[in-house]
Write a structure and sequence with these properties.
Elements: E1 15-16, E2 28-29, H1 45-55, H2 73-81, E3 91-92, E4 97-99, E5 106-108, E6 115-116, H3 124-140, H4 159-183, H5 194-216, H6 225-228, H7 236-266
Antiparallel strand pairs: 1-2, 3-6, 4-5
Helix pairs in contact: 1-2, 3-4, 4-7
């Protein structure tokens, strides 16, 4: 549901999560910037109910018949008194393993202990499962990426060696995934601040440009990194490396064009020498 408010600090959306049973209680969320007017209201359920009724006049929020109200009064009171939570920036631990001097024991980080994501691209659970799979393969002495046996290694490695192998393989992959989470889809919540609108316009322009270049070059230039991530055969390192190469190429072309334009304008540099 979209509110009738259109200001940068009073626009809001109601997000209803899907449920299997339509008769069951359905969670509802509100995602805004911390500077939004809603977080400045008095911590009173009636105040919030009145504000939302004005924002969503077509919804049965304030009704004489309590049984037909969209939310019961106790939910408004709970919502008003609750502290809002925030999405943390995508972040990671630079070290994933600590090994004893003899290499016979160690401590390793997996899942949320070594990386944290906002739900923008839905990779939190996937990354945790990938950590577990990689750790299991490292302990078994097989190839961490493919799961195939490595004839050169032979016997099962010591714990310390396995943990260091896990860290060596997963750390750069997690680093690339963190970058993907930051640039993949940062404006999907349609926040109304002007900087968010400008940022979304630039992000969408970048996505369309790379998609067009990908089509015109028959796949030589990769798609935007979020679209490339749908290819399960590629590692995140490879995806971000291709994205960086494309960015460097586009910046180079832009700078060359600007330099040529300056020469043509001020030095009367000919088009063909």
């Amino acid at each position: 549901f979209i509110a009738k408010n259109k200001g940068p600090k009073d626009f809001v959306r109601f997000g209803l999560l899907p449920m299997i049973d339509n008769e069951s209680c359905r969670p509802c969320n509100v995602i805004t910037r911390p500077s939004h007017d809603i977080w400045k209201l008095e911590k009173d359920g009636e105040v919030y109910k009145e504000w939302f009724q004005k924002a969503f006049p077509r919804l049965p929020i304030q009704t004489n018949d309590k049984s037909k109200a969209l939310f019961p009064d106790e939910e408004w009171d709970r919502f008003a008194k609750a502290e809002y939570t925030s999405f943390p920036p995508a972040q990671r631990c630079t070290g994933l393993a600590a090994v004893s001097p003899q290499g016979q024991a160690g401590v390793v980080l997996v899942g949320d202990a070594c990386h944290a994501f906002s739900p923008d691209i839905g990779q939190g659970v996937n990354a945790g499962l990938a950590d577990v799979v990689a750790l299991g393969r490292a302990l078994q002495g097989v190839n961490v990426l493919t799961g195939k046996e490595d004839e050169k290694k032979g016997n099962t490695p010591a714990v310390g060696t396995a943990l260091k192998t896990y860290e060596h393989v997963r750390s750069p992959e997690i680093k690339a995934l963190i970058r993907l989470a930051r640039f993949g889809s940062p404006y999907q919540y349609n926040q109304p601040l002007y900087r968010d609108k400008i940022g979304k316009m630039l992000w969408l322009s970048n996505l369309v440009l790379r998609l067009m270049l990908n089509k015109l070059t028959f796949g030589i230039i990769p798609k935007q990194c979020l679209l490339e991530a749908q290819n399960q055969k590629q590692t995140f390192r490879k995806i971000m490396r291709k994205a960086d190469t494309t960015t460097a190429g586009l910046v180079g072309v832009l700078l060359a064009g600007l330099w040529y334009t300056v020469l043509r304008k001020f030095v009367n540099f000919p088009l063909v020498v």
